[in-house]
Design a protein that fits this description.
Pfam families: SPP1_Dit. This is Phage tail protein. The protein has about 300 residues and is mainly beta. It has two helices and 26 strands. A hairpin with a 5-residue loop joins strand 9 and strand 10. About 25% of the residues are buried. The two termini are about 35 Å apart. It folds into two domains: about 150 residues, Elongation Factor Tu (Ef-tu), domain 3 (Beta Barrel), CATH 2.40.30; about 140 residues, Sandwich (Jelly Rolls), CATH 2.60.120. The strands form seven sheets. It has a seven-stranded antiparallel beta sheet. A six-stranded antiparallel beta sheet has the order 13-25-15-20-21-22, with no helix packed on it.
């Protein structure tokens, strides 16, 4: 039985979870673990469990109880244990080495995609760092058997659908309408573009989209009608320029240059612009349009 991995280039280009084909599998750092591999799934904790919570409640000083506040999830700690079974004792060392390389500690401070398909066929993705690894080195290793334990920590406790979704909203335009005097057959002209799109967001918890504004326009803004939250930017965009707003990280970049200072006073904090599960109505507006301006909203359905 071989260890299935993605090559170095495919790790950057393949969709997260590309190696997963069945329940009970994990993809980490381009390596497939779990069912159908030499690393047999024993136990997974922290994946379906509620992470620790930070309570915003404040104790009442003069009576029982507290003033209720927001409950915010802490980072998610995921622990997985596996049984390593080699076809022969001579091959056991190679399997342990492959696992050790796949779970090497990295010092670049970057999280990587961890994709898990547990029972029931639901495949979910999170970004995590490896924080602990225990590999077998006891008497059973001499006969080609052993138990390994891997632990990851995800700074964002939400779990996401591996596939991204994107909706594009062109700038609003007026329709041509009828031309008088009327001639038959009637020509109603081109229908107007409203600059509004309705999307259906899945999952069970709000997700943080990436919003990209394309010029030419000035003062672009996006509003989520159901929540009333809006973000706008006091910045001109010429044709070919893009303003990318990552609401998860709270960053704003104009063709790679920081433009966080252009956030308008009427906007909510960038991290507060989320899409909640269900039907969402999105509107794209700007102070002026140069023709061809648009806005893309990209997200993954999130589950907590």
């Amino acid at each position: 039985m071989t260890v299935e991995t993605l090559d170095a280039e495919a790790q950057f280009t393949a969709e997260p979870g590309a190696l997963i084909t069945r329940d009970g599998q994990i993809e980490w750092a381009g390596t497939l673990l779990g069912s159908g591999t030499p690393y047999r799934w024993l136990e997974l904790t922290g994946w379906e469990d509620t992470p620790g919570l930070d309570s915003g409640s404040v104790l009442r000083p003069d009576r029982h109880g507290a003033w209720p506040g927001r409950q915010l999830a802490q980072e998610r700690v995921i622990t997985w244990s596996a049984r390593i079974s080699a076809p022969s004792p001579a091959e056991f060392g190679g399997l342990v080495t492959a696992l050790r390389r796949a779970t090497a500690l990295l010092d670049d401070g970057q999280e990587r995609a961890l994709v898990i398909r547990a029972k029931g066929g639901e495949t979910l993705l999170t970004w995590a760092t490896l924080t602990s690894r225990i590999v077998p080195n006891d008497r059973q290793a001499g006969i080609g058997r052993g138990t390994a334990t891997i632990q990851w920590t995800a700074s964002d406790p939400r779990r996401y659908a591996p596939a991204e979704q994107t909706v594009s909203i062109p700038q609003p335009t007026a329709g041509a309408g009828l031309i008088y005097p009327l001639t038959y057959p009637l020509d109603y002209g081109t229908a107007s573009e409203t600059g509004v799109r309705t999307v259906e967001v899945g999952g069970d918890t709000p997700t943080s989209p990436v919003v990209t504004f394309y010029g030419p326009c000035t003062g672009p803004r996006l509003t989520v009608v159901e929540t009333g939250r809006s973000i706008g930017f006091d910045v001109p965009l010429v044709a070919g320029e893009t303003l990318v707003v990552d609401t998860a990280n709270g960053s704003v970049e104009l063709d790679g240059a920081d433009r966080f200072n252009t956030l308008t006073a009427a906007s909510v904090p960038i991290e507060d612009l989320t899409l909640i599960p269900g039907i969402q109505t999105l509107t794209f507006r700007a102070s002026t349009y140069g023709g061809g301006a648009s806005c893309d909203i990209t997200w993954r359905d999130a589950t907590l």
